[in-house]
């Protein structure tokens, strides 16, 4: 079908060798003639002004101005608009029930969930997993518990199995099943973890991708940094810290990820500059939330920050005490946020 081909290492006939050498000689002669031939002077080109096309921006969004192709500058607004709408049309499908512990679970409590999340933060650090893996893990846990009654003895098994799935989804080199068995002190066998993984995937219907708090926090952090040429690492790390604290509290489950991310950014800016209004028109436009929309969630996360809630869960606090994170967990906001900060922002 593809014609006759010579195999590697096959012998050529004498006539073929002579023909090959003659062809090669002609090509070499032609190439030498081309090199020795004087080159014609290039024609003068007409001068014209090159206009560089810059993607349209909204409120001076520096992401849209960036030339880094990985930031998808021409599409960033459309991408986040889609992700934001996805939060609502996937309600009940890829979102957990806001009250599943009261309505579905009989043996699992909110405190047990918090302890599990706190431990999974340590596991993620031990295996150097990317933050998105942790957020997806918690999402899978809440989604599974929203429809499946589970005994407290299998809660840790659910946690490591969800992290195994999230690792396969996010990581380049995910930990092996044996690694997750080991981290539980071999409380569960490899077969038990694989069986639970199968049950989770069947329940999720293999719909594993969904926007998380971290997804939106990237965007809001970028907007909050404004046109600064050097990134404000304190702002970034403090946002990461508060966002992970929100994972601990079952009360945050009822809020969609974008609202939690916006609340985190509100509290982050208030913590760093308590006398300045933490919200502006750029953040309001890109997040879609007014300060009044964030009040309940902001106060809840502030209670976590000030140890009014979840004070016995220390993994995240210890993690962000490290100098590589600029010790942001040692920072505290003022006990009360002025009421006027929750009023609508004016242009």
Tally of helical segments: 15
Written as H for each helix and E for each strand, in order along the chain, the element string is HHHHHHHHHHHHHHH
What is the CATH topology of the domain at 213-342? Cyclin A, domain 1
Question: Overall mean pLDDT score?
Answer: 80
Spans where pLDDT lies below 50 across 5 or more residues: 1-17, 39-64
Estimate the helix proportion, in percent: 40-55%
**The level-1 CATH class of the domain at 213-342:** Mainly Alpha
End-to-end C-alpha gap:
72 Å
CATH architecture of the domain at 213-342: Orthogonal Bundle
Radius of gyration: 29 Å
Number of strand elements: 0
Strand content: under 5%
Q: What is the oligomeric state here? A: single chain
Q: From the helix content, strand content and strand pairing, which structural class follows?
A: mainly alpha
Protein name: Cyclin A
Domain Cyclin-like: 118-202, 215-303
GO molecular function: cyclin-dependent protein serine/threonine kinase regulator activity
GO biological process, one term: cell division
